[in-house]
């Protein structure tokens, strides 16, 4: 029974913690203090619910308890003495609401608070690593240990990042608000980058024994969906959500039962999640509609979602519209010029016009300094050389790629490809 209650508390916390923290942060104007107060409410739940049972509206219970903790803290705090009457009155007024009103408040006004929390956690004043850790902590409800395990980083390192991030936000006097005008565009880009980084780490793990970490994909999707619901007019928000939905649809097909990687063209498409594909295609339509309404071209996330949609619409690998994918990568390269985009474009060109055409483009990237330690460059080059029958050269490329990757599953896969070259030489 106690174990069941604790699982329920964990599930409630994952669902409600971001709303509770966001609401408290608006009141106390301090993200660190808001999280501390929310954690106090969680501790109270762990102490109370095993005996009293899970309340009918656990989210409202956590919110009320956290606000009571905030009220107690404000009454004691000398540094808020000049604002105590104002803030105390605000909290007492909310606590005196009838229960139905509090319940409905959980589904309505907190939208603005959540949006403020997202923009605060992803503020550019923080390093990228700090933004990622703080977002997973505040919006994903993950513990420090869970974040550390997800990124294969020592727990004290993650704890330090989170503590420093909160301190930096406080010292920089970052306002708990949604930016406006030109600043909104800049800050939105930072928010989307963080969500995208979290998803990508889950989709293709940088290091470790597992090729994927689906839990990170789920967290990124959850935050992305929240943001899309709060920023309905932003094309790139829907573009990123569409991209993640479609990419996530392939998760179950990307590995064998033993955990070995299965490349896109070799995947069993019957295992792709059709619900996620439909959601992704709908999000892409919303991104395209928002762009048309604003009279702007599709941004990088929407273009990548359009590329993913080409794969999702193909019933079989040989039905993929590679010419359109190559064209979309060309468009992406004009929006966000990048050697990595060019490498992906070369793969599409090779599929549309043959491996020789793709290799010609890849060879232009060999001297690119930013790709010198990027394992996918020799991996792609090795694959194209293999298709052209140049087995010895291909083997050397696969061996170099295996040396560069830090993911054990991927290293094993690349070593097998190198061995295949040796056997067929």
TrEMBL record:
GO terms for biological process: DNA-templated transcription initiation. Residues 19-79 form the RNA polymerase sigma-70 region domain. Residues 187-287 form the DUF6596 domain. Transmembrane segments: none annotated. Residues 118-169 form the RNA polymerase sigma factor 70 region 4 type domain. InterPro entries: DUF6596, RNA_pol_sigma-70_dom, RNA_pol_sigma70_r2, RNA_pol_sigma70_r4_t2, RNA_pol_sigma_r2, RNA_pol_sigma_r3/r4-like, TPR-like_helical_dom_sf, WH-like_DNA-bd_sf. One of its GO terms (molecular function) is sigma factor activity. The lineage of its organism: Bacteria, Pseudomonadati, Pseudomonadota, Gammaproteobacteria, Nevskiales. This is RNA polymerase ECF family sigma subunit. NCBIfam families: sigma70-ECF. It comes from the Bacteria. It holds the Pfam family Sigma70_r2.
